[in-house]
Every structure is written in structure tokens, then in C-alpha cells.
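Tutorial sheet, problem 5. The two components below are modelled jointly, 324 residues in total.
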Amino acid sequence: MSGQYWAVIGLLALAAFAIRVTGLIAGGRIRASRHAWVLDELPGLIVVSLVASSLAGQPPATWLAAGIAVGVAIGTNHVIATMALGMAAFAGLGWLGV
Amino acid sequence: MKHGALTILPLALGAAVYGFAFGLLAAQVGFPSWSVGLMSASVHAGSSQIVAVEQFATTGTVLGAVLAGAALNLRYVGMIASLSEVLVGLSWRWKILAIHVTGDENWALTMAERAKSPEVGAAFLLGSGFVMISVWTASTVAGAAIGAVLPDLERFGLGFAFTAAFIAMARGLWRGRSQALPWVLAAGATVATVSLGVPQAYGIVVGALVGLAACALMRRKKVAVA
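Model answer (C-alpha cells):
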């Protein structure tokens, strides 16, 4: 395992710890500030951007499979069900040559 | 502490399945099982870990992967802040331990149980947290051990598994229609940026910033109307 893997693990652990300690020490003040909405909005925007970046430049079948996964996610709100049925749709569309 | 440890068990089983899937994916993109365990025990944040691993596998950049993963964890500032009354009376050492073992599931369960009976407090949070971090770490290691001996799953759509996981996370973060426009604009900006040949990591930053700008404008308009 290269040093880069160590760096990802170490820095992510440090960031996660720092965020939790920030919540412990200054969470109340941050929540009361006029910029608190950024904390609420940013996670969703990052995840949506991650989905979009993974679909950019992909063939229509991948977008279709993503649409099916969105339908499953809306219907079930379950991570594993969405992953399983989304991958099944992706593999099925590939098998059908779509 | 025992009360929290027992009450969290059904939720821990659900997290174990997710953890197993994460471990499997992490092993397939090159993380050894012991490093997956180290990450799970030291980071203890599922969505943050899966985002960082996917970004590192896709872009190969450490900083981009860490920033994307950390951004997912920002919600913990508010979650931990809401525990201030629960943690009253604990020493700093126990407080640090308590906030490290706090995850989405045991935080939500502690808050829900405390709303029903005020005597539910730090012991419940710690008991449920110890079970969650143990189950999460063990399940990710088990997934990684299996993932390491499986053939390359890319041809079965492994890459799409991450996309599907992100879609499920987005569903979990959906709070209502007010998010629709910022999310659509963020997705559109990301696709446009990446389509121009800009690396994915920057596309994600552009998308998130465009979404934040949309949120800010919507909030300003709302205040002006009120």
C-alpha cells in the first residue's frame, strides 16, 4: 500500500475528528450564526455533484440505470436496495446491449 | 450503557450490510482489508469514507478525496452541538470518546429515546456508539477480505455501485422541494464542467459552489418577500 493510501486514511481521520471537536466546542455558536445554512446544504450538494460527475460523458444506458436507481431510492430510501437494483439495472442494460 | 448497546442492534445490522458493501468496493479499488478496518475505526463515518475512497480511486488525488469526504461530515458539527446536554458531566476524555463513536444511527436513536425519557443520556450514547463502531469496523473488514479475493468486478458494473450509493445518499439528504433548484443547478454545472474536460474533482467543487450560490439567492429572495 503506497503512502497515498496512508495519507487518505490519516487526513480523513484527522478531518473527521476536527469536525466533531468543532461541534463540541463551537457547535452552538456556529449553529446560531447567519452562515449555519451552509452546513445543512453542502452535504447534499456535494453528493448530487458526485452523482453528476460520475455520469458526465457516460452513455445513455448509464443515465438510464441511474434513473432506475433514483426511482428505487425514492421508493425505498434504502442504500443497499438502491445499490443492488441499480447495479442489476446497469448490468441488465449492458447485457441487452442498450 | 447496556440499554443503548441492545437497543441499537437492529440498526447495527443494517449498518453491517452497508459496511460489508463498502469494504468490498474499497478492496476492489486497492485498499487492503486491514487499512479498511483502520479507516473505519479512525474515521467512523460511512458516507464520508465511501466518497473519499471513490474519489481517490477515480482521481488519484489525496487532497480532493479528503476534502470531498470531509465535506460530507460537516453535518456532524450540528449533530455534536445538539449533544451538549447529553454530554454534561463527562470528563473531556469521555467526551472525546463519545463524539468519536457518535454516528448517524446512534445519534438519532439517542435523541429519539431521550425525547421519550429524559434519563436517557451519555451512557446510552456510549453503549450504542461502541456497538456501532465495532460492527461497522468488523463488517467493512469482512467485506474487504471478500473483495480482495474476488475477480475484478468492474465488468459487472462496480463503478456504477458507487454512483448508486451516492444516489441513495442523496435521497437520505433530501429534505424538501426547496432543495430541488440548487440540486439541479449543481448537477448541471458539474456535468457541464466535466464535459469541458475539467477533472472530476474540480467539477464537483464547481457544482457545489453553484448550488450554494443558488441557495444563497433563494434565501435572500425569501427574506425580501417576508
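Marking note: Chain A touches chain B through 63 residues (CB under 8 Å). Full credit if you identified this.
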